[in-house]
Structures are given as C-alpha cells and as structure tokens.
C-alpha cells in the first residue's frame, strides 16, 4: 500500500486531490475523528471525482466478493461499534497480527495510518460492496446505521448545546428532550435493548464521545455513539420519562419507567450519577416474563435439584443463597417463592428494592430514610403470622439476629449473603456477631451460585481440547468427551452465546456441620465436611456443564478461578 505522500502524488496526478488537501483532511480527521469521506465532503474536495475500481490495486486495496461469511466474535470485538459505523468498515478476519477491514469507500486508504493509531493494530483494507457493509453493520453491531444517520442529522438541525445551569437553560433542555427526533432515539434505544435481551442500558458521556452500551448475558456491548452535542437532550429525555428532577445534576437520582412492550410489562429502574463529562445514566431492564422462570430453567443438575427441593420443604429454619451482585440470586429466590406460593401459605418479603411484584405475596420495600429498615420490617412481619419470609439481604447483626430467631419459631426464612462460596456463609454469620449456637440451630442449608453464558446451540463448534483443557476437565486417556467453543451466528447476534445458566454448590446441614458451626470452625473445615455430605463445588458443577456442551472453559474459569483440588473420601 502506498505511503501518504505517494498516495497524495497519485491522487494529484489523476486530478482528484492535491497533497495539501490530503494533509488538511487528515489533520481534521485527527481532530474530529470523523470519517475521511465526510471530511472531504465538508471541505468540498470530494466533488472532483471518484476513485475507479481500476485504480484500487494501485492503492493496495484488493476487492473481496462478499463479506457475508460469519465473522468470529473475537474479530468483531476487535474494533468498537462506534468506529465501525463512523468509518463504514467491518472487521473480517485476523491474519497473523494484521486485522483485515472491509470497506466500500476507496478513500479510506487515506486514513490507514489513523486506523492503525486508533485501533493499535496493523490494518489491511479490502473492498466490499456497499450492501455488504450495511448488512454487516446491522448484523454484528445492532442498530441500523442507515436508519439512524438521518435521525442524527435531523437532531443536529438547529440544536444548540445548553452550557449554563440556569432556570432558562433547564427549560431549554426540557424542550429539547420533547423534540420528536430525541423521543424517537430514546424509544429506539429502549426497544433495541429489550429486543437484544439486555439487562441494562448504559448511557455514558465521555470526553469526546457519547456512548451507549447494552449489558447482554452479563457482558457490556457497545451499540452506537450518537453525536456528542445531543447527550444532554437524550439524558434529559430519559430523566423526564423516569420523573426525575431535570435541574438536579449535582446529586445521584433514582427513578422508574413503566412500559408495555408487545403485551409484556417492562419495568426500567433508572439511576443517574454526576460525572466529569456529564451525567451517567443506567437503566436496569426488569422483565417479569424472564424473571419468573420455571425451576427447571435455573440450571440445576438432578442431584442439586433434589437438595434444593428438600430445603424448600422445611417448615422452619433459614436457607441462604450466596454470591456476588449479578449472580442470579434474586431470580432463584423469586422462582422458589413462586413455587411455594399456594393459597394455604402466607408469604412475605422485605426487599431493597422490590424488583418484581408477585401476585399473592405481601412485599415491602425498605425506606431507611424514615426508619423502615430490614430489621424493623422483619419484627413487624412476625406479628403478621407468616409461613415463609424473604429478607432481601442480611447486611448487619440486627437483621441476621432477628432473621435467625424467626427461623427458630416455625418460620421458613430465605435470605442472601455476599460470600465467595457456600461454606463461608457460616463463618460470615458468626463474624457478623451472631451467636454460634443460633447459627447451628437455625441454619438449614446454603447454596452458592454464579451465572455462566450458554453456548449458542445453533453455531457452537466442537474442537479437540489441548492438554491444559483436558487437565481442567479431568479428561482421561481414551475418554470420549465432546467439547465446544463459540462461533457466532445471527441467532446469538454473533457473540457465540445466548442466555445464561446457573452453576451451584449446595449443602444441607447435618450433625457434623452443626457441631463445626457451634465451635466456630474455620471455613476450610466446614468446606471439607460439606463435601463429605455430597456437596458438588461451583467449579465441579461448571465442569459437568462444559462436558454437556452447555458452556465453555473460559466462562467457568472466569467465575471459579483456576483448577481446584477437591478431596473426596
């Protein structure tokens, strides 16, 4: 491929651009990060002609028949969606250390140095037709750029960014938020997020850009970058929908948007946070149809399902579910409560917040600002003659003490803790200050869980595992095991994954475990005793699901760490 100077000379010789025009355009691109084609149009240089296909070889750009082949997910992730859409390029493959980009714009060769600098990669351009670029951008990066470009242009028309925090400025911001193009863009972002099964929509002002990302199956994916100058109008639109105070930008705010999408009730929990470049806004998408799944859809293997069902049948005692935020604890507990929700039982929950309203269950949301805490609500619950209680989270000694004492008086209590594994729940309660005799007598069982992404059933591909993988999966010589990895297709939006499944470790208290709790034994002793009862560890459960072709080694390692040594007697 020619150097910048050689390219300028060549373009000058065929009467397209002068060397100074090329330099001017490239300098403006470095400043604005806009596409070279749009910059040349703005400068008035592009009308002088087009580069014919006969000249492409002189620029080192080879034609490619099509870009319709499936592109590996890791290749798609090698460039941000905003970059792909701005410059109308699509990553096709990696050859050694070189990234092959498809483009329908020959003048992109002028920006090759810029591409290398921005992407921190060696880049090779190939020519593909315009339709292939458009369909690939839609296929791999979501929202159709050709649909949104006119919308962005319309938004830009007559829009003046509001710079000062005055009453008049806030009124102007509200007016902008009510403009039809802004409303349409906000609706598109929400609808597209729901369509793609996003759990969260992140609206993020950065220094020079305005970024929208979706969290899908626990992983953030960039979807598009609207013009920077409309960020305040877009954020104001979402704040209006969530009935927030538009004028308040110094403090975090929380709000709620209730929608009905194709007959499905959708609840958006909206939060804002002041930032250096504007307010960051996140919308948590709560879809009741996906939250209340059947017990069979949680991902239990038969032995663990039996253990969990046994815990649900206790008439009293406390059952704990542990794991970090986003590990699926709420879904598991809501699904379990729904299974217990019969006319002969009274179920009550205290949560912060109440994520879903379940018919037939009395649900209370805590309000610490007026003294309505987990502990105070729990005390009141005991005067309401409940059968089953859910305490959203045990955070302090008072809540733990009341919850465990309630469990001793004929109530089945469910709650959550933040611990790394199931055995640590016992030591965590004791560390909070709960008397060891109370833990030993009231605790019925503990389940730890994590979420791993499910391989797309339509495109997953089998591969021969290397020695490291064989060791991790305990594959013996001659053992016939089929291991799969990601590929990417339209059904999974070219990520290679579709949906998530739980991996679990569950133990039910027995005499040995109660004695260990009573004498405040170390976690490793409790873990050893729990394994003796038949507890399968999180990693062991994950390995079985890899062997079943449900997920990948990378997913299990990401939540359970390196290979663990488990001794079973």
UniProtKB/TrEMBL annotation:
<dbReference type="GO" id="GO:0005524">
    <property type="term" value="F:ATP binding"/>
</dbReference>
<dbReference type="InterPro" id="IPR003593">
    <property type="entry name" value="AAA+_ATPase"/>
</dbReference>
<keyword id="KW-0067">ATP-binding</keyword>
<dbReference type="InterPro" id="IPR001482">
    <property type="entry name" value="T2SS/T4SS_dom"/>
</dbReference>
<dbReference type="InterPro" id="IPR007831">
    <property type="entry name" value="T2SS_GspE_N"/>
</dbReference>
<dbReference type="GO" id="GO:0016887">
    <property type="term" value="F:ATP hydrolysis activity"/>
</dbReference>
<protein>
    <submittedName>
        <fullName>Type II secretion system protein GspE</fullName>
    </submittedName>
</protein>
<dbReference type="Pfam" id="PF05157">
    <property type="entry name" value="MshEN"/>
</dbReference>
<dbReference type="GO" id="GO:0005886">
    <property type="term" value="C:plasma membrane"/>
</dbReference>
<dbReference type="InterPro" id="IPR037257">
    <property type="entry name" value="T2SS_E_N_sf"/>
</dbReference>
<dbReference type="Pfam" id="PF00437">
    <property type="entry name" value="T2SSE"/>
</dbReference>
<comment type="similarity">
    <text>Belongs to the GSP E family.</text>
</comment>
<feature type="domain" description="Bacterial type II secretion system protein E">
    <location>
        <begin position="382"/>
        <end position="396"/>
    </location>
</feature>
<dbReference type="InterPro" id="IPR027417">
    <property type="entry name" value="P-loop_NTPase"/>
</dbReference>
<keyword id="KW-0547">Nucleotide-binding</keyword>
